[in-house]
Every structure is written in C-alpha cells, then in structure tokens.
Amino acid sequence: MTALSPEQVVEMVEVGVILMGIAITWAVYHNSDRAELPGDARIPDPAEADDAHPDTRGRTL
To answer: Within 13 A of 46's CA, how many CA atoms are on the CB side?
Structure first.
C-alpha cells in the first residue's frame, strides 16, 4: 500500500509531464536564433576554391 492517494499520484504525474514538456520545448528552442535558416546562407564566389574542410558545426536543416 502506498502513502499517496490515487489523486495525489495523478497530480504528481500531471506536474511531471508539464515540466517535461517545458524542458523539451526549451531544449528545442535554446540557441535556435543562431541556426542557419534557408535563404540565410551566403552564396559562395564561383572564382574561389572550395573549402578543404567545410565547417560542419551548428545546426542544419
């Protein structure tokens, strides 16, 4: 037998799910303002040689 009533267990689960949703939303949108969006990438000069080691850091779509 548990020390908590069924209503208390349901309320704890509800609070946990809400907090988990907030944490997931924060993780998805954290630093998203620095993401490279379509149309924001610079157009390379055709006269320049390609990079030997392309920059693969950051988020991509």
So the answer is: 0
